[in-house]
Amino acid sequence: MSSGPGDSATTEGVSRSGNSFVGDLWVNFVRWNIKAVRNPFVLVVSLVQPIIFLVLFTQVFGQVATGAVNQGAADISYETYLVPAICMQVALAAAATSGVGLVNDIENGMFEKVLVSPMNRTAVFLGKTAAEVVRIAAQIGIIIGLGVLLGAEVATGVAGALGIMAVGILFSFWFTALSNTIAVLTKDQESTIIGANLLQFPLLFVSTAFLPLSVLPGWIQVVARFNPVTYGVDAARAIMLGRDVMTVVEVTAFGGIYDTLVPAIAVLLALAVAFGSVAVYMLQRASSANVQ
Fold first, then answer.
1. C-alpha distances out from residue 178 to 29, 155, 248, Å
2. Which residue in 67, 81, 61 sits closest to 245, CA to CA?
3. Are 36 and 43 in contact (CB under 8 A)?
4. In this predicted model, what pLDDT tens digit does every residue of 176-208 receive, in sequence order?
C-alpha cells in the first residue's frame, strides 16, 4: 500500500487489511454508486442543463450557425455539429459535481474515516472516478439519443456512439481530478461549486464546441488551441462525422479520422495523468488532522 508524507504519522503502526488494490477500488466504486442512487437529484440536475443547451442552441441558433459550420464545402446540420459538444458539456458538468460529493464526505466525517483506514489512496480515487464514469457514459448516451431525435446523424453508427462515450469518459478524468483537488483544498461546498463552474462555461465558449475555429475571434482562436475542451470536442466530432476535423493542430501522419483522434487522445491522456497524479497526491497529503 502506498503512503504519503502527510499520512505517515497517522498510519504508523496500523495493521493493514487483507484487501488488494482491486478490492479497495471495488469497495469505493460500490459505495459511490450507492450514494449516487440515493441522491438522484444530482444526476438529474447535471443532465438538465446540457439538454437545455442542446434544444435551445439548435432551435434558436441552428439556421444562423449552420452557415458558419458549412464554410469550406461541408454539408452537415447544426444538430450533428453540436451533439459532440453537448456530450463534452455533460462530462464537464458531471465531473464538476465530483468534488461536491467529496466535500460531503469531509463534512460528515466519512473522508476522515477513509484516510485513517488502510485502503490504498489511489484505489480510493480510482474507485470514486469509476463510479462517476458509469454516470457520465449513461448521460452521454441519453444526449446522443436525444440528438438523433432532433435530427443529428452519427456517421459511424452504434460503434461511433460508443466511441463518443469513451472519449467523453477520457475527457472527464482531468476535470474530475481538478474538482476533487479543489474539494480537498477548500473543504467547502460553495467554494468547490463556484470553482468548478467558474471554469466550466469559459472553457466551453473559448473552444470549438459551438462554432468552427476559423469563424472565432483571433484571441479565442489562440486560447482554443490550448483548451482541453477543443481536443475532447474535436475527437467526438471526428467520430460523429467519420472524418478528420482537427483544425488546432496540423497532423497528416495517420490518415483520415485518425489525424484527429491520435493527437486529441494523446492530449487528453496526458491531462488525465497529470491532473490525476495531483489529485492522488492531495489525497495522500491529507490527514485526519487537517480535514476537521
1. 19, 33, 24
2. 81
3. yes
4. 888 888 888 888 877 877 777 788 888 888 998
